What we know:
- The relative contact order is 0.10.
- It is built from eight helices and no strands.
- It is an all-alpha fold.
- It has one domain: Arp2/3 complex 21 kDa subunit ARPC3.
Amino acid sequence: xxxxxxxxxxxxxxxxxxxxxxxxxxxxxxxxxxxxxxxxxxxxxxxxxxxxxxxxxxxxxxxxxxxxxxxxxxxxxxxxxxxxxxxxxxxxxxxxxxxxxxxxxxxxxxxxxxxxxxxxxxxxxxxxxxxxxxxxxxxxxxxxxxxxxxxxxxxxxxxxxxxxxxxxxxxxxxxxxxxxxx
Length: 182
């Protein structure tokens, strides 16, 4: 493959993953998908990093994040994609190289919590805080802590699922892509 053909493939692949990521994020207009679809979109962007390198993955992430903010009116989903789900799959394996494993786990939790707190604070500035916490009166003063704990539990499950998805992609999908390109 010539250098020009290689660059063309990389640009096209990033364009396709960016477009697919934004299309998936469009479904975030359905309220129950506000948190799920940014996570799925980040996995799509990860494929660009896996196929082409982290630099290209971050390029696709930047383009998709910009397009999401321009096209998708669901600000909360956009913020969670921008602050965490869009780039975390790209750097996950770098964090896991930290030794010992418990320290790597602590770093991942710290990164997640910092990102969620930043996204939540900006959401509170943009939207009315009462809207965000609406329907949680039954938990009383503990509502924020219950949500935070649930978010951390969901992150741990997400992180474990990413390992399985990465392995499946590398084992079954990636060889088929490269076989078709040769």
